[in-house]
Design a protein that fits this description.
two-stranded antiparallel sheet, mainly alpha, about 160 residues, about 5% strand
Length: about 160
C-alpha cells in the first residue's frame, strides 16, 4: 500500500464512515435533532436548522482518532488535518453536487421554486458542514495537544500518566 493511501485515504475514508455510521445509529435509535425553527423572511421558506447533538459530541473523538492514526503512520500535520476534517468536506461535496442537480431536475421541472433549493442548501451547509466542522476541529485540537504531551514526555509514555 502506498504511503498516501496509508496516511491520507484510509484514515479519511474510515473517519467519514465512522461519522456516518454514528449518525445512522443515532437516528435508528430514535434520537431526535435539536431543531431551531427559522422563517427565512427574505425568501419565504421554512427550513429549520437541525443539530444531532449526540453526533456532534462524538465527532471530536472521530477526528482525534483519525488524525492520530494518520500521524502514527507517518503523515504530516497537514495530512492529519485533511483526515480529521474529511467528514465535513464530504458533506460540503454533497452540497456542491446536489444543489445544481436539484436546480436542474426539480426547479426546471416545476416541482418547486429555486428559493427552496437555496434554503435547503443553507440548511445542509449549517447543520452538516459548519457545525460538524467545528466539532471536528475541536477533535483535531485534542489530537494536537495529545501528541504534544506525548512528545514532551517521551514516545513510550502515555500522555495522561506522564509527569511534568
Amino acid at each position: 500500500m502506498t504511503r498516501r493511501a496509508q496516511v491520507l485515504w484510509l484514515p479519511a475514508v474510515a473517519s467519514i464512515l465512522a461519522a456516518e455510521v454514528i449518525l445512522f445509529l443515532l437516528t435508528w435509535a430514535g434520537t431526535r435533532p435539536w431543531t431551531i425553527p427559522l422563517d427565512w423572511h427574505v425568501i419565504h421558506s421554512h427550513h429549520p436548522l437541525q443539530f444531532y447533538v449526540p453526533w456532534l459530541v462524538a465527532l471530536p473523538f472521530v477526528a482525534s482518532a483519525s488524525a492520530l492514526w494518520s500521524r502514527r503512520r507517518g503523515g504530516t500535520r497537514w495530512e492529519a488535518t485533511k483526515v480529521a476534517m474529511a467528514p465535513a468536506v464530504a458533506a460540503l461535496g454533497l452540497a456542491v453536487l446536489a444543489t445544481p442537480i436539484d436546480l436542474l431536475v426539480d426547479v426546471a421541472g416545476g416541482r418547486h421554486a429555486a428559493e427552496h433549493t437555496f434554503c435547503g442548501t443553507a440548511w445542509l451547509l449549517v447543520s452538516f458542514v459548519l457545525a460538524p466542522g467545528v466539532a471536528l476541529a475541536v477533535g483535531l485540537l485534542g489530537a494536537v495537544v495529545w501528541r504534544r504531551r506525548a512528545g514532551a514526555a517521551g514516545s513510550t509514555t502515555h500522555p495522561l500518566t506522564a509527569r511534568a
